[in-house]
Each structure stands twice: as C-alpha cells, then as structure tokens.
Q: What sequence folds into this?
C-alpha cells in the first residue's frame, strides 16, 4: 500500500472526529472544516515520519489544536465583509442546552477552551492533554480548574465536587 493510499484511509476515518473537535474549539462548522483540512494537510506533509511511529491520531489532534490556537492569535476580530448575504441553511430545532454550553465555551480564551475540550470532549487524561498542548500537567490542571470555574460562573450551575476534585487530583472516595 502506498503512502498516499494509507493517508487517504487515515484521513477518511479521522476527518469526522477532527471536524467535531474543531467545531467545539471554534463554534463554527465552516471554520471547523477549514481547521480540519489544514490539520490534515499538515499531517500529510509529515505522513512518512508519523505512520512509522503509529502516532497518527495523536499527531492529528495536536496539529488541529495548534492550528486553532495559531489561527486565534493571528485572526482579526470583527466582521467579514462580503458582496452577498449567505443563504440560510434549513436547521432543525437545536437543544437549548447545547446552545448555552457552546456560548459559554466561546467565552473562554482559546487555550482554556482547548484544554476543556481535550479533557472532557476528546476524553484525554491530564498527561495526554499536556502532550497535545505542549505544556506541563500542572498547567493543564490549573487551566482546567480556572476554565471550569469560569464556565460555572457563566452557566450559573454547580459542576459538582467530583469534577473539580478530579481537576485538582484530590478525588475523595
């Protein structure tokens, strides 16, 4: 099997997961698609090196998060001017909770948002999250604790002592 064929199979299998993760990071399906495609292009450029180590999924996730964070640092905040208004897509009713949670996530700084999504959506542990973000496990724990406290303030609900104890590493039991 050629490198291109192997990568095509990998990309086909990984794309849905990368798009979902990217959507949670940025809150916009179009931007999520762009982030996922950019991450896959970067993975393809390094494919021969990655596939030998068997780390393609982890590399793709880290590349996606790094691409998101770099995009946020370079991005101008504001409106994008266009010549035409976009067509409205037909949407079914979305659960109110989902909208509230996505809005709350959007209020977090990009690094905090990435940390929360990697920990609780992608279901990575502290060490795996630290590896993806290129920081220490202590940074992941403190960032997660601050982000959860911010989400708790924004959402106005108690996240529960079990989750905050897990973040601190002091699970009672």
A:
């Amino acid at each position: 099997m050629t490198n291109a064929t192997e990568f095509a199979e990998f990309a086909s299998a990984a794309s849905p997961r990368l798009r979902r993760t990217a959507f949670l990071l940025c809150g916009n399906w179009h931007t999520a698609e762009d982030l996922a495609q950019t991450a896959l292009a970067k993975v393809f450029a390094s494919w021969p090196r990655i596939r030998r180590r068997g780390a393609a999924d982890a590399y793709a996730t880290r590349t996606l998060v790094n691409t998101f964070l770099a995009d946020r640092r370079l991005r101008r905040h504001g409106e994008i001017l266009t010549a035409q208004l976009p067509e409205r897509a037909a949407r079914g009713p979305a659960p109110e909770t989902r909208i509230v949670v996505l809005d709350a996530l959007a209020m977090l700084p990009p690094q905090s948002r990435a940390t929360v999504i990697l920990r609780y959506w992608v279901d990575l542990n502290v060490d795996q999250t630290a590896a993806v973000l290129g920081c220490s496990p202590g940074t992941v724990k403190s960032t997660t604790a601050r982000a959860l406290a911010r989400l708790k303030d924004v959402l106005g609900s108690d996240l529960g002592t079990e989750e905050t104890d897990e973040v601190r590493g002091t699970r009672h039991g």
The longest helix spans residues 3-26. The radius of gyration is 18 Å. The mean pLDDT is 80.
